[in-house]
User: What shape does this take?
Amino acid sequence: MEKSYKTEEIYEILKNRVVHLEYEPGLVLNEEELAEEFNVSRTPIRKIFQQLNADNLLNIIPRYGAQVTSVDFRKMKSIFEVTRQLDPFAARLAVERIQPHQIAKLEEIMGRLQNYRIPDDYQKAIDDDEIFHKTILESSGNPALAEILSKLHMQTERMWHYSEQYIDSINIFTDTLGELLEALKEQDVEKAERSARLHIDQFVEKIKKEML
Assistant: This one.
């Protein structure tokens, strides 16, 4: 018997395919083929296309279909301008609210990151970077902030995947995230904000240098 997928499950699968560049920018998704793949009618697929359109991951083009959006650093500039303000704020809140089990989770992630090698483990590093940020958002204790940043992080994570060829050292992850982890353990608000912002700035400067 074929598995029956829930709409939420299909959304997560398709979102991850776009973010991880399994669906390349410009690709037109076939509604009928996806309905067949997930053993559902075309109605939930249309609904998911609308959700991904709201996430700025798909463009809905009348009489043409749903096309995966492009990855454009110039367009991403506005997103990074927002995240470099909100991510440090999330880090500030996390300093005050993070729990011991969340610190332990961040330490596990950092341990893995320190053992990764570029380029072989680049995709694993991005995945752990995203888990690190999700843990910070959870520990901030602010659902509204977490919702806003989660949507923005979909775009920035996609940029990380797109920029694989330009990243040549694991230090772009470990240096600033390691400092952020130290700040959380030391309950140092200023250090936490600084390292969270620097993590973004170093990546932006790297891809700006390579892509522009």
Remarks:
- The first strand starts at residue 28 and ends at 29.
- The mean pLDDT is 95.
- Strands lie at 28-29, 58-61, 65-68.
- Residues 73-97 form the longest helix (25 residues).
